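quick one if you have a minute, typing this from the bus. below you get a single protein, a line of residues and a line of whole numbers that encode the local backbone shape. could you go over both lines and see whether the tokens make sense for that sequence. anything you notice is useful, everything is just below.
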Amino acid sequence: MRQFGLGACLADDMGLGKTVQLIAYLLHIKENTNPSSSRRQTDPPGWPTLIICPTSVLGNWQKELQRFAPSLNVMLHYGSRRLDAGFFYGAASQADVVLTSYATAALDQELLKEFTWAAICLDEAQNIKNAQTKQSVAVRSFPALHRIALTGTPIENRLSELWSIYDFITPGYLGSAKAFNDRFSNAIEKERDEKRTADLQNLVKPFMLRRKKKDPNIQLDLPDKNEMKTYVHLTAEQAALYDQTVNGLLERMQRLEGIERKGAILGALTGLKQLCDHPMLVSKEALPETDSDNKLDTSLLINRSSKLERLLDMVKELRAEDERCLIFTQYVGMGKMLQAVLQQELGEPVLYLNGSTSKQARDRMIERFQTPVPSAGKESRRPAAPPSDQPNVFILSLKAGGVGLNLTAANHVFHFDRWWNPAVENQATDRAYRMGQTRDVQVHKFIALGTLEEKIDEMLESKQQLSDNVISSSEGWITELSTEALKDLFTLRRGLTD
């Protein structure tokens, strides 16, 4: 597609590796623009690629680029420390990849459109599904040799969303919005015109790589259990509260000893872990009141936590594929918030099991969740829509739901906050990954960048400073650290949080 000057849409299902495929493509571009390469040069040297993604996945892109393509020079253009025009062009010219968010791209439209990009890649491209929004207009204005859209849901509700993505990758190919609406949208959405549907499929298919996990050829290539880490940044509010908590603790460490010192550390530890989830867990605020239609203003909650924002996006995507999930959290308040937000955003019931749930209610929840969803019959490729009272998302506290349950109706498991004990987390994952599970299970572990969540995860990965018997279900080992080691563990690394 690049060779012919045509855009492309990578629309694989969630979990099939859109990110790593794009990174391989970026490495290919660098190889073909390296002056020392003996291969044919396709681009002028020094033209970087621009990746635009939701704020909640900026950290994930940084980590994945570092992991899979350490040879690429990545520049982050985000936050209060981002460069202005005087310095931006020089720095971007030295980068292979410039990484920014949709919101920043709209704010800095005039800056970014003065640059010609080797490629512009949109992650979660459904963010431009409404062509008239400021960020959609902005990303269309940036000049590029090649345009790529990544999305697991190329159509969420209306065909106009597909038009918007294609108008970005190959402008004008599907005509104007009005012409597309007259030719396809009305005929397909209202009249179910089969010929027009086939015509549109023939136009769209050459530009889209769409693989679904249900394809038997894909199944052969996937592991039984696929674990992945999802990195998110703290919001400005979370970062300020995090710094405040750490500074307060370090000040108290100078005058506390013995049991008081341990108590202060454990209290601060709980507060920091809760802050990584949502600031309302620390402030003890109640959930916002519902309006006269019993609706909750979920934006008030989502905007304060990147974890919550990212989880919501991922759950919406898997539900669009009729898949089901378990979500584990240690905190009752977080469980209640997740239930309220997901229930309203998905428009379907969401179950929540914690330590106060009675055995009768617990058994009833499990039975409801495990009840098979009726299929649409052999002729249909897609399962029938579940009944309105069918729960497809099950939130569980790690203590109450981590063992003894059979929840094989789910094939996604989210660890919203980490227990830091691999055995405990694996036990929780095994609620879905067990006898009776007929699908591949995807495990998503959320980690807040720059925080003690990331630092302890690094310790677990490298096994440095930690012996097998140090990490246990308790966090007492942290209270034994010296004040200097405690400062190193707790202090927030600067970066995306600025």
